[in-house]
Amino acid sequence: MTLNxxxxxxxxxQEAFEFYRSVFGGEFITIQTFRDAPKxxxxxxxxxxxxxxxxxxxxxSVLMGSDxxxxxxxxxxxxxxxxxxxxxETKTHADQVFTKLSDGGKIIMPMxxxxxxxxxxxxxxxxxxxxxxxxxxxxx
Length: 140
Fold this sequence. Notes:
Strand 7 (119-124) and strand 8 (130-135) form a beta hairpin. This protein is 17% helix and 38% strand. The two termini are 15 Å apart. Strands 2-3-4-1-5-8-7-6 form an 8-stranded mixed β-sheet, covered by helices on one side. It is α+β, with helices and mostly antiparallel strands. The protein has one domain (2-135): 2,3-Dihydroxybiphenyl 1,2-Dioxygenase, domain 1, CATH 3.10.180. The protein has helices spanning 13-24, 91-102; strands at 2-9, 30-33, 51-58, 61-67, 82-87, 106-113, 119-124, 130-135.
């Protein structure tokens, strides 16, 4: 199980993560733009070169981030520009955590298989904290 911060930006993600890499060192594990998303996501032209996902290991944690895709979401402001990403050991465990966290909150994206190969869902808990829940494992 892991718990990592996930930062959201208004088209400044690449600049921010280049800065964080210069501070902490290391290399990106992943860096993708919305251009890499499947066509069914219907990303608008102005969003195609925004960062869809980037991850930078820092010690035993991973700092992750993305730009807001204006095709799907409003711009971020201080206070709603982060989430916590929980890496569950199994899909069943991911479902259990997601169900508990979303109880009394709001489901943003239900748990399910996603095109980048993870089992993933996003919710806001009853206290207003946004959670990304995922499992990289194929076992239930």
